[in-house]
Amino acid sequence: MKEIVILSGKGGVGKSTIAASLGAIFSEKYKVVLADTDVDAPNLALFFDAIQKTSRDISTSEKAFINYEMCIGCLKCVDVCKFSSMVSFDKKPAVISYSCEGCGACTIVCPEDAIEIKTVVNGKIAISSTNHILMVSGELSIGESSSGRLVDEVRKTARQEAEKLNADLILTDGPPGIGCPVISSIKGSSYIIAVTEPTPAALNGLKRLFKVVGYFRIPLGIIINKSDMYTKSRQEIKAFAKKSKITVLSEIPYDLSVPKAISMAMPVVTACPDAQSSFAIKKLVNKLSGIIKKLS
Amino acid sequence: MRKSVLEKDVISQLHQKSIEIPVIGITGGKGGVGKSTTAVNIAEAFLQTGHKVSLVDADVDSPDDHTLLNIPLNNPRDVAITQPLFNDSNCTRCRKCVDVCRINALFQPKNSIPILISDCNGCEACFLVCPSDAIERGEKIVGKTYMTEMGNLRLFTGELIPGVEESAFVVNALKDRAFNEVDDSDIIIIDTSPGTHCNVINALRGSDEAYAVTEPTPLGVHDLELILKLLRILQIKANIILNRSDLPGVKGKMRSIAKAYNAEISSEIPMDDLLVKSYVEGAPVIRMYPEAKSSKEIRKLSQKIAARHLQ
Question: Which of A30, B93, B225, B228 is deepest in the core (most CB within 10 A)?
């Protein structure tokens, strides 16, 4: 089974738009499971009229809890917290749960054993499906942390579902940025698609993402979305790709069918199959099919 | 009962700050909706009215404000976290440090000192349990902060080192530095990363109000609701900036969400080719094309912010 993950560094360059269209076409050619690891803002399911089959709570986060009946107010826990997550009021400590990492340093210094580290629910994983697409998406609870570990769970669930279906491919729509959920999305995948657009900011994001992917030695290809937006940056991206020996998989021109399809909550290849962008995506699918075959 | 009282106290503690300058957060659940573009343009609008501005680029994964302003990053400073270094002669091989590490970053081969096998988060729990003073403080650089001064603008930028996971330290170091070096700025504008995770929360700490940038598409509206939920938890007054307001979409749904969360739609910025042009050229649209329709909207918004905070 092969796992392709779509990332970008910079947000809003078209990851989900492209993932939805690729998912729609791939699901006709292969047995495929779609996964959404942008757990802060999971959008992939919005493109499909999918029915939710299951949703379960996930607890991959740990937090400190204080037993106030035992607390003597020595505030040693406040001094020792490296995450500024233990604060004091009226000589009693309180946990700022949003930034608590559950490291347990406070439990070590507490002379009364009044602090306990407990697992908390920090998100959920939903499995939904249409007639021929199965989708696994993760959603972080608002204000929660440990998104990297939630991403690990989403990918584990996607693999289990893929095995049940005997699927050939998992296509994952990843998060923006380069932080922990991105690293969790990269680990163990077979191929990374980096979506970018020809602007200086998106090229910055691409370069930073390329560095991270480099640590994992996973092959990577670039899609230049909205390719006709700005010639100078487009040339800079191509020069960067050439210098770094990265394949440019596709250049997708900007056309109005894309926002139109998004407003209809449909993949552009379904909503406007004859659009220029749909044509480019179909060509991309052929190229990717060749790459998938060669992946070990 | 105790818990609810505490929650309120915790939130007020979260927002506590040493400065009295107004702090405005520019955020938004979804990526690429125009957070940074809006932030640099609001900053530029305040500069044009003769104010001193501190702009804080807290999207440490992918900081771009300096690119949009076409200015360099100056005065770099490392952000480091503590890493354990093991002293062979002091170590008694008791394994207490290995057992206490909740992220399983330590491993102790037989008869050897412990070794770090995965990313350490710098919590220092191992230091606390070591009975023989065998752990020394090492350092791992996880990011950098910068401060660039250009006329009346101070741009503070945080940058995570690619491949490193501890971004919260970088955001916190950036906020500390900005709040310390803000000097005589009239206003602080904070540009957050997309999402609703801990980095967004840390970036928004101490904001007097926040503006959630979004677009009227189903995706934009979905993610807007997430960020409005977060702002409600953090008890920060929420406003909405509707970018690319004439994109085909679901404006009605957006209005009802705005109403449900008691958030005002403060500005509607239409699609504007001149804005795109200025974006790729590295200049705020309100400087490059002051008469553009987006420039007019942004100026109006800045006047609104000024009326609320700079009187």
Answer: B228
- The answer, for A93 touching chain B at a CB cutoff of 8 Å, is no
Residue B303, token pair as written in the block:
């006047």
Does residue B190 share a domain with residue B159? yes
Give the minimum alpha-carbon distance from A269 to chain B in angstroms, rounded to a whole number. 18
Q: Judge whether residue B284 has pLDDT over 90.
A: yes
Enumerate residue ranges in chain A where pLDDT < 70.
Answer: none
Q: Could you tell me where the beta strands, DSSP code E, fall in B161-278?
A: 187-191, 209-214, 237-243, 264-269
B98 contacts B138 by C-beta, under 8 angstroms? no
B227-242 per-position pLDDT tens digit? 999 999 999 999 999 9
- pLDDT band for B248, please (50, 70, 90 cuts): confident
Note the pTM of the prediction, 2 decimals: 0.94
- The domain in which residue B157 lies consists of 15-78+142-309
pLDDT tens string B159-212: 999 999 888 899 999 999 999 999 999 999 999 999 998 899 999 999 999 999
The CATH class of the A2-59+123-294 domain is alpha beta
Contact assignment for A94 to B6 by CB distance below 8 Å: yes
* Domain shared by B108 and B165, yes or no: no
Alpha helices in chain A (DSSP H): 15-29, 76-80, 105-109, 147-165, 180-186, 200-216, 231-243, 257-263, 268-271, 276-294
**CA–CA gap between residue A251 and residue A269 (Å, rounded):** 15
* Distance in angstroms (rounded) separating the CA atoms of residues B140 and B164: 10
What's residue B10's pLDDT? 83
Among residues B20, B34, B39, the alpha carbon closest in space to that of B210 is found at: B39
Contact A18, A195 (CB under 8 A): yes
The residues in A 179-218 lying below 8 A from B, measured between CB atoms, are: 179-183, 198-201, 204-205, 208-209, 211-212, 215
pLDDT at B2: 43
Instruction: Indicate if B123 and B260 belong to the same structural domain.
Output: no
pLDDT at B4 over 50: no
In this prediction, residues B104-127 reach a mean pLDDT of 93
Instruction: Provide the pLDDT for residue B198.
Output: 86
CATH 3.30.70.20 domain extents, chain A: 61-120
Residues 6+ apart with CB under 8 A from B215: B30, B33, B34, B242, B243, B244, B245, B247, B249
Task: Indicate the average pLDDT of chain B.
Answer: 94
Inter-residue contact A95 to A56 (CB < 8 Å): no
Q: Which residues of A touch B234 (CB under 8 A)?
A: 143
A233 in contact with chain B, both atoms CB, cutoff 8 A: yes
Cross-chain residue pair A103–B30, CB shorter than 8 Å: no
Q: Are residues B200 and B271 in the same domain?
A: yes
Question: Does the domain at residues A61-120 carry the CATH identifier 3.30.70.20?
Answer: yes
**ipTM higher than the 0.90 cut:** yes
